[in-house]
Amino acid sequence: MQKNYITYLFKLISVIGLFLLPFKTYTQEPQIFTIKDFDLRGKVKSCLVITDYGKEEFEFDKEGLLTKNLTRYNETDYDITYYKYLNGQLMEKRDEIYREGQFDKQTSLAHFFEVDTTDNKKVSEKIISYAGDVLDIYEYSYDKDGNLIEIIRSNNQGLDNTNIEYSSYKGETTITYLLNGEILKSVRTSFKKNKKGIKNKIVLSKEFLNGIPNKAEERIYDSEDKLTSLKEFDYDEAKKSFVTIKDINYSYDAEGLLIKEVEKIEKSVNTKGYIYQFDGEEEGNWVKKIITPKNLFTTRSITYYQDELTKTKEQ
């Protein structure tokens, strides 16, 4: 699931920002993260990642759901997020912030979720600061097929309504997000065969500012749903069209690991190579990643569930 290192979708303080590049200025439904979102395989219990700015720790339950993530910048500054589930549904999420060894209740948040399935599914989310203030209340509504169709956000500043519309045309599907009737984002998904006859998935996302086109991204995925191409665009008001500002191509080995990344920005080309060392377990998780030519290192220490016992493999 290397694409999750490169793409989306959601930033948990700075922790998941290491793995996921957010493209999000609009409200979207709560998300559940699993071991796959962190390029992990097998019965992983925990994973410690050593980065250039500190250490990141991830813990998972036996179903592979993320239950805790911790970003430690130094001994006294760190962020912790806890997750609680019921039957696979996220029910509680707590973001706890510590600075200079002290718990900061003003910036720490608790998210509480309730699920109503009596008719079409509805999920409510209440966000409360540890100081006791109710900051936001969200209501997520779904259609009979499980598609998110409406998000209502309320706080002391008023009410916002995001509607999500779905349409299909000649094999393409488009999802459109509208905030209080004004377009925020559109996501068009289509499929096209490449020169080798392999069907690729093409996802074109456009973002709007005050209803005017602002930026866009095009992502191409192969038949195994791995990201092979990413293009970023800015909107040129004079040309009344999107202009490419970045073009990245990704290559993978037979095991599905990213081995090469070629980035083009205007006339400059930047190539990165990826080399891995593995822990020797049956599932084959990497414990050291080397990025050439700068020889940057990322190391991981992984603990597994195994017959109620754990086995740790470290580099």
Task: Provide a descriptive summary of the structure in words.
- The protein is mainly beta and 315 residues long.
- It has a 20-stranded antiparallel beta barrel.
- The protein has one helix spanning 3-6, and strands spanning 44-50, 55-60, 66-72, 78-86, 89-99, 102-103, 109-116, 122-129, 134-142, 148-155, 158-169, 172-179, 182-193, 199-209, 212-221, 227-236, 241-252, 258-265, 268-278, 286-292, 296-306, 309-313.
- The longest helix is centred in the first third of the chain and has 4 residues, at 3-6.
- It contains one helix and 22 strands.
- It is globular and about 50 Å long.
- It folds into two domains: 1-87 and 277-315, no CATH class; 164-266.
- It starts with a helix and ends with a strand.
Summarize the structure.
The protein is an all-beta fold and 315 residues long. The protein has one helix at residues 3-6, and strands at residues 44-50, 55-60, 66-72, 78-86, 89-99, 102-103, 109-116, 122-129, 134-142, 148-155, 158-169, 172-179, 182-193, 199-209, 212-221, 227-236, 241-252, 258-265, 268-278, 286-292, 296-306, 309-313. The radius of gyration is 21 Å and the shape is globular.
The overall average pLDDT, rounded, is 88
Gyration radius, in Å: 21 Å
Estimated structural class: mainly beta
Largest sheet: 20 strands, antiparallel, barrel
Number of domains: 2
The arrangement of helices and strands along the chain is HEEEEEEEEEEEEEEEEEEEEEE
Work out the helix count.
Answer: 1
End-to-end separation: 22 Å
* Total number of beta strands: 22
Taking pLDDT < 50 over at least 5 consecutive residues as the criterion, the unreliable ranges are 1-26
Strand content: over 45%
Which of globular, elongated, flat, extended, rod-shaped describes the shape? Answer: globular
Estimate percent helicity.
Answer: under 10%
